[in-house]
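User: quick one, fold this
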Amino acid sequence: MKVTVKANANIALTKYWGKKDAALKTPWNSSTSVTLEGLETTTTVDFDKQYKKDIFILDGKECAEETDEYKEVKEQLDIIRKKAKMNLKAKVVSKNDFPTAAGFASSASGLAALTFGAAKAAGLNLSVEELSKISRMGSGSASRSLIDGFAIWHKGERADGEDSFAEQIAPKEFWPEFRILGCVISKKAKKIKSRAGMAQSVKTSPIFKQWYEHAEIDAQKMVELIKKKDFVALGELAQHNCILMHACAMTTLPPIIYWAPGSLEVMHRVLELQDEGVKCYFTLDGGPQVKIICLEKDVPKIKEEIKKLEGVHEIIECKPGLGPREVKGHLF
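Assistant:
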C-alpha cells in the first residue's frame, strides 16, 4: 500500500483563470500546456491501519489540519478512498525540487503526483483521463500534469463535469528542441494563491467575460500551432494570452499584481531580444517567475543576456517532460 511517484510541473501556453463551477472545479475556458522535465515533485503515499488520521509532510514540514495544503490532500485522498471502497488513513510525504507555491506550478505537479500515487497505493487501475478528472478537483492545472508532453485541458460542457479533463496534443518526443527557461525572481510563497485570486476575478474584474471568451479561442488556436510546430506564432500567442490573463487579475478588486520588479526586467529584456531578431517569448502564471519560451539553439544567447539582470536569482532550463511515473526509493 506504499507507492512513490514523480510528477512534473507544467507551464500553461494558454492560461485558465477562473472556475465556472466551484464544486466540480471546472474552468470557464480550455487551456493548453507543456509538461516540463526539470521541475519535479516526488511523493510517497502509504495507506495503513497504523495511521489514526491523514498525515501530510511537505518539503520536510508537517502541515496542520487547518491549512489549505492539508485540506487539499485530504480531499484527494477521500476521492480515492471512495473509489477504492476503503477507509484507511494515509501518510503522504512530498518534496519539490523547485520553489513551492511561488508561481512554478508546484500545485500542478504536487496534486498530479498525489492522485497518481494514491490511486496506485489504493490498488486502483485508472485511465489517464480518469486520473486527470480526479486531480482537477485538487488543482485545475494538475489535470494537465497527468499528460506527457503537450496537453489541452478541455473546459467541458456537461453539468457533471465528466468531459472536463486533459488529453495529449503531442508527446514530449514530438518537439525535442522546444525549451522553457524558468527565471527565478523570488523563492517566497506568493501572498495571493491562484485559487483565491481566480475567485475574486470572476466576481469583480470588468473584463472577465472578454478574458475567458478570448482564452477559449486562443486554446483552440494553440492546439493547431503545436501540431504544425509553428514556433513564432506559438510564442506570440502565448505571450499575448499571458498579458490578457494578468490584465484580468490586475483589474480585479482589490487588484492582483503578481509581477515583481525582476519580472518586468526580464519581460523588457525579452522584448528587446525579439527586436534584435532572437525568437523568444515570455509567459507568467500566477506568480512573479518569468518563463521564456525558446528553441534549443537560442538558449546560450538568451541565458547570457538574462544572467546579466539583477532581478534573476536562477535560470532553470526545461524541455518537454513525462507525466507521473512510479519510482523506487520511498521518502519514508
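User: anything notable?
Assistant: The chain has a mean pLDDT of 96.
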